[in-house]
Amino acid sequence: NYFNRASAPDVEDIELADERAAVLAEAAALKKLAIDYLHPEVGVTSTDGACFGRNYFNRASAPDVEDIELAEERAAVLAEVAALKKLAVDYLHPEVGVTNTDGAAFGRNYFSRASAPDVEDIELANERAAVLAEAASLKKLAVDYLHPEVGVTSNDAAAFGRNYFNRASAPDTEDDEFADERAEVLAEAAALKQLVVDYLHPEVGVTSTDGAAFGRNYFNRASAPDTEDDEFADERAEVLAEAAALKQLAVDYMHPEVGVTNTDGAAFGRNYF
After folding, report:
1. Is 102 exposed, middle or buried (0-12, 13-18, 19+ CB in 10 A)?
2. Residue 42 near residue 36, CB atoms below 8 Å
3. pLDDT tens-digit profile of 194-204?
4. Full-model pTM
5. How far is CA 145 from CA 24, 68, 134, 140, 210, in A?
């Protein structure tokens, strides 16, 4: 290592360097304070433009201003006094009269005028409509009862139709529950029949057209070479890698004249800082 070689200059640790810098900065600040105290004739020098400014609103020649709370309270008092003054004038001088230029002050309600016709309330109108509708329904029932010869007239096409599935000539159908149960019983009977046939006629044999029934596993065949488990293979690889590393260390120790060869460009570099 370039930095740890025998001829490398001594360097400080980062912590010691930071601590030394903090001590020097504190000493410089104390020195400046001592000079300012011992030499007051030097004065204070500053190039900051803000040091020569002043507040426009707090200058000596600024006019007096009120606080926001006092200004709001004064405005409220003046408004109240003005309202009281207007009331007093209206009371003491009734001959002045009331002046108004609002056009709405001269208008009137069209529906509430004196010549407007009488109108019903919404509740009474709704109740009257309900009573008339009920009376019309009762009248129709009375006419239908007293004049059966009139008959019933209807122009709705659906009144002449019938249900295709409930007609008199429709075939009998099963309910969904009975149909499902019958299908399950028939499937179970067919399976039992197949088992009985297989048991009574073993000479028939088993027939299959599935290609996978004739295949075999390539890795588990009788002629397949022996293979290691993953755990044993990993352990063997670790043992061989460790033995190779130990061999390399032994060679480096027994033959120091060989030297170290390296093609990594970073090994020849150094830190600029």
Report:
1. exposed
2. yes
3. 999 999 998 98
4. 0.23
5. 121, 88, 17, 9, 79
